[in-house]
Amino acid sequence: MTTAVSIPRTGGSGGHTAVAARARQVVKAYGSGETRVVALDHVDVDIARGQFTAIMGPSGSGKSTLMHCLAGLDTVTSGEIYIDETEITKLKDKKLTKLRRDRIGFIFQAFNLLPTLSAIENITLPMDIAGRKPDRAWLDRVVETVGLAGRLKHRPNQLSGGQQQRVAVARALAARPEIIFGDEPTGNLDSRAGAEVLGFLKRSVDELGQTIVMVTHDPVAASYANRVLYLADGRIVDEMYNPTADLVLERMKHFDARGRVS
Amino acid sequence: MTVLKTSMRNFVAHKGRMALSAIAVLLSVAFVCGTLVFTDTTNATFDKLFASTASDVTVSPKGVSDKDTRQGRIRSLPGAELAQLKRVDGVKSVTGDVTSQSVTAADRDDNSIGSDTGAPTIGTSWDPTEKRSVEITSGHAPRGPTEIMVDADTAKNKKLELGDEVRIIAIPGEFRAKIVGIATFQVTNPGATLIYMDTDTAQRKLLGAAGVYSSYSLTAQAGVSHDQLKKNVVADLGTGVKVQTKAESSKEAEDDIGSFLDVMKYAMLGFAGIAVLVGIFLIVNTFSMLVAQRTREIGLMRAIGSSRKQINRSVLIEALLLGVVGSILGVLGGVGLAVGLMKIMGSAGLHLSTDQLTVKPTTPIVGVGIGVVVTVIAAYIPARRAGKISPMAALRDAGTPADAKSGWIRGAIGTLLTAGGAASLVVAGNADKAVDGSMFLGLGVVLTLIGFIVIGPLLAGLVVRVLATVVLRIFGPVGRLAERNALRNPRRTGATGAALMIGLALVACLSVVGSSMVASATDELDKSVGADFIVQSDTGQPITKGIADAVHGAKGLKHVSEAKDIEGTKITLPDGKTVTKGLSAADPTYAEDLRTPVVEGDLAAAYGKDAMSVPEGFAKDHKVKRGDTLTVDFKEGRTAKLTVAAITSDDVSLDKGAMYLNIATVERYVPAKMIPADVMMLAQAKDGQEKQAYASLKAQLHHYPSVKVRDQTDYKQEVKDQVGQLLNLVYGLLALAIIVAVLGVVNTLALSVVERTREIGLMRAIGVSRRQMRRMIRLESVVIALFGALLGLGLGMGWGTTAQKLLALEGLKTLEIPWPTIITVFIGSAVVGLIAALVPAFRAARMNVLNAIATE
């Protein structure tokens, strides 16, 4: 019960495989000897293309570490991670940076935006630094979708928390990355603003075909996903398709209880 | 107590962030203390030297002055008093000494064996019975007219050995002698070259007569005080001679050298002061940034009940700690600096011994005092700002709040100051009198400087935007990020740039004045100097009769003009008033060599018998008209009645205010022995024979290393070189202030990188490469440096131009902006910006992305 490899390697969508990202026997350990702490313990996982995947688990379960490793922000101790067919665990910083810039989008919990840049400048930043021209029509559609049309010239400190997160979502979508990673993207928002942002994410998956992986500990947030992966003690212990908030909550209670007993 | 504890912990926790501020304090304090230790040590060395060479009571001729050396005048005592002095009450022994500084000694190849640093060559009598500061360490004492002894340092530096022949050029003439002995100083000799000979030789060869002395040295009998002995001598000899006790004569010698050392000391302290000023900006920035970064923490402390005062005090205590640590290290560094300076001076010929290293107790007190006071003052504003942080800050999201807007009050005050300063500069530039003008110049400099510092943050916004459109746009989005970063905190950018501005403004100002000096001198030479050749001594040695004869003996010359300064002449005017002025005595051809325009009369007539010229201003002030007769009382001769035959223009820069008369006129009233040697000789070549004449002059003067002949081209080059050397020295001293300013840029960047850790992490996460990150920080640094350079160079050129306009009254008539220097400095600033960014950029690029993002 430690694997979530359950999707066929190739699917219908174009030349790409149906798996946007996958991890094979990934171990992430800190320290050595007696102080060795294993954050990820031989994890295998496939992230389906065009799907909204949520990673859940109690604090310290390794869910954030998994996401960071999948996104090429963190190095693994052993094992392999692929984005599409590229093994990123072998890449040097230069290539990895380029990969993040061109093929991955990020939404962090807070502090997503550069305070010196306006909303629109923040949105196009990854493309600017890559020296690419944004696709005008797509950009307009993204901006339209996240509902920021009137605020593009504003600096982050002139925007509310929800608006800032929407700008972050727009930035992640604008470059049409193969995969977007969200690290508790709604963790700092009230439920209404959170629902708004999650709604966008879901719509971008449903309507724009975007692949999204999101770490969260909020069952309601997880209920927006197509699939929920449960992590505990650095292992994937369960998964659920088409979750609802209640089901997720129920499952979480179960793990929490088990965690306390063991 | 808790306040102190928090301060201590903060200080230790942020010691990395304090490091550059501490270095700034250290450097400034080290420079101050180094200067003090060095000058105190030099003074102590000279004190000891003079004390060891002065005898209990010295008798010397009246009216001896430093100018005697240059003017080649011999003052001596007839020698008759020697026997008389022996009988004076309280005298144990008397010796007659012969000493002359109008001496040049040359080796076999006609090179001077004197010091290269301007220390004197002293020819003196050797009397074995006398108390001496030297001991013979090889060979024997000189005997007879062909033997001399030299000091060991000179022998070593100039590679002289026993048996070498030396040619000695003194006022009465030149002679050759063999080195038979080498004497070593028992105290530190800072650099003078000593040539000993027996008394009879010294008398005849240096003073030109047998049996005469330069001075008498008296030793007191036991129990007789120096003062008492002096009284007895004065009672016996009368007041025709100068009688000094040991204390008096050493003090006189010390005062001579001391005034020179004081000039050096205050000049160096001035430069240290500039560095201190620049350091203040660095410290202000450091504390502002620390306070900004700690906003939440301070908010929390306020929330749990710390008073404003406590917060305020805790920041100031941190500053105090910084000041103390920096200053103590600075004092130690200062002593090291002084030792280093002594080593450098040693290789340049000024020998100082570390045995005499003098650290007065006031030195560390002054050093630590300056360091601590400056640091605490600099931290005061940030501390006050810290005290004003509201408890609410604890609750707000992290991230440094943008600095309060610079505000229109700042703009208004800054503009007002700058405008006032500019107005003063305009007034100074148009002043009629140099004295009034220089006051306005000083005021203008200070006001514009402060004005620029005050509006610096506002200018930063403007200048950075302009620079960004010109330079940064090439670098695309990275350039834009750098621009935004430089603009995000204008106060910080302003202060960092202002620190650089100060040093560079001085560089620009001085370079404008320096190149204007060269240009003015060149123009003036072209315009009014008709002479082809100029003969002068660079070392202050007289142009002796022998040298003058050598010049006259050169081939291909149309004429040679000699020029002498006749000093201390009392002139009684038609209205009965008396003024004391120097006269310029010259040959009539001098008027062709230096064309001085006249407003009335004919300059040639002024060189006639019993005639003279006066300058326009003098004539106006004293209502002297052409044809008036002035009573001229020559100090060293009789009184003459001279007719004013010409009135010269004051609109000149060479010989301004000179009163000309013929040397022949002077010779009628002043005894030949008292007529000073030439200060300068000018010569014109016969038409078409310039080259041959120059070669001939050089050949003729080859034997006389104390004088140089230059044609106009070489003379211009010499002026240029001298100004260049002086400027380089000043630039070298300003380098300290500039280094501190560059540290300031490093400091600002380093702290900004720390402050923007999360941003950097975010940027790296979304795909900004390490190289782009480094470039972004480098560009920000370059922009800050160029901002400082632009302000500094602009300000400095304004000051320099005003100074030139003002000094035009004193002959600095031609303004020349040294564009190559200015452009070099500007480009150099960009390079310095790049260098300053090296470490911060490296650190930013190396930052771990995840840790950076996770930073609070």
TrEMBL record, chain A:
<dbReference type="InterPro" id="IPR027417">
    <property type="entry name" value="P-loop_NTPase"/>
</dbReference>
<dbReference type="InterPro" id="IPR017871">
    <property type="entry name" value="ABC_transporter-like_CS"/>
</dbReference>
<dbReference type="GO" id="GO:0098796">
    <property type="term" value="C:membrane protein complex"/>
</dbReference>
<dbReference type="InterPro" id="IPR017911">
    <property type="entry name" value="MacB-like_ATP-bd"/>
</dbReference>
<feature type="domain" description="ABC transporter">
    <location>
        <begin position="21"/>
        <end position="258"/>
    </location>
</feature>
<dbReference type="InterPro" id="IPR003593">
    <property type="entry name" value="AAA+_ATPase"/>
</dbReference>
<dbReference type="GO" id="GO:0005886">
    <property type="term" value="C:plasma membrane"/>
</dbReference>
<keyword id="KW-0813">Transport</keyword>
<dbReference type="Pfam" id="PF00005">
    <property type="entry name" value="ABC_tran"/>
</dbReference>
<protein>
    <submittedName>
        <fullName>ABC transporter ATP-binding protein</fullName>
    </submittedName>
</protein>
<keyword id="KW-0547">Nucleotide-binding</keyword>
<keyword id="KW-0067">ATP-binding</keyword>
<dbReference type="GO" id="GO:0022857">
    <property type="term" value="F:transmembrane transporter activity"/>
</dbReference>
<dbReference type="GO" id="GO:0016887">
    <property type="term" value="F:ATP hydrolysis activity"/>
</dbReference>
<dbReference type="InterPro" id="IPR003439">
    <property type="entry name" value="ABC_transporter-like_ATP-bd"/>
</dbReference>
<dbReference type="InterPro" id="IPR015854">
    <property type="entry name" value="ABC_transpr_LolD-like"/>
</dbReference>
<dbReference type="GO" id="GO:0005524">
    <property type="term" value="F:ATP binding"/>
</dbReference>
From TrEMBL, chain B:
<feature type="transmembrane region" description="Helical">
    <location>
        <begin position="362"/>
        <end position="383"/>
    </location>
</feature>
<dbReference type="Pfam" id="PF12704">
    <property type="entry name" value="MacB_PCD"/>
</dbReference>
<dbReference type="GO" id="GO:0022857">
    <property type="term" value="F:transmembrane transporter activity"/>
</dbReference>
<protein>
    <submittedName>
        <fullName>FtsX-like permease family protein</fullName>
    </submittedName>
</protein>
<feature type="transmembrane region" description="Helical">
    <location>
        <begin position="266"/>
        <end position="292"/>
    </location>
</feature>
<keyword id="KW-1003">Cell membrane</keyword>
<feature type="transmembrane region" description="Helical">
    <location>
        <begin position="779"/>
        <end position="799"/>
    </location>
</feature>
<feature type="transmembrane region" description="Helical">
    <location>
        <begin position="729"/>
        <end position="754"/>
    </location>
</feature>
<feature type="domain" description="MacB-like periplasmic core">
    <location>
        <begin position="19"/>
        <end position="233"/>
    </location>
</feature>
<dbReference type="InterPro" id="IPR050250">
    <property type="entry name" value="Macrolide_Exporter_MacB"/>
</dbReference>
<feature type="transmembrane region" description="Helical">
    <location>
        <begin position="493"/>
        <end position="513"/>
    </location>
</feature>
<feature type="region of interest" description="Disordered">
    <location>
        <begin position="102"/>
        <end position="130"/>
    </location>
</feature>
<keyword id="KW-1133">Transmembrane helix</keyword>
<dbReference type="GO" id="GO:0005886">
    <property type="term" value="C:plasma membrane"/>
</dbReference>
<dbReference type="InterPro" id="IPR025857">
    <property type="entry name" value="MacB_PCD"/>
</dbReference>
<feature type="domain" description="ABC3 transporter permease C-terminal">
    <location>
        <begin position="271"/>
        <end position="391"/>
    </location>
</feature>
<feature type="domain" description="MacB-like periplasmic core">
    <location>
        <begin position="496"/>
        <end position="693"/>
    </location>
</feature>
<feature type="transmembrane region" description="Helical">
    <location>
        <begin position="408"/>
        <end position="427"/>
    </location>
</feature>
<feature type="domain" description="ABC3 transporter permease C-terminal">
    <location>
        <begin position="733"/>
        <end position="849"/>
    </location>
</feature>
<dbReference type="Pfam" id="PF02687">
    <property type="entry name" value="FtsX"/>
</dbReference>
<feature type="transmembrane region" description="Helical">
    <location>
        <begin position="315"/>
        <end position="342"/>
    </location>
</feature>
<keyword id="KW-0812">Transmembrane</keyword>
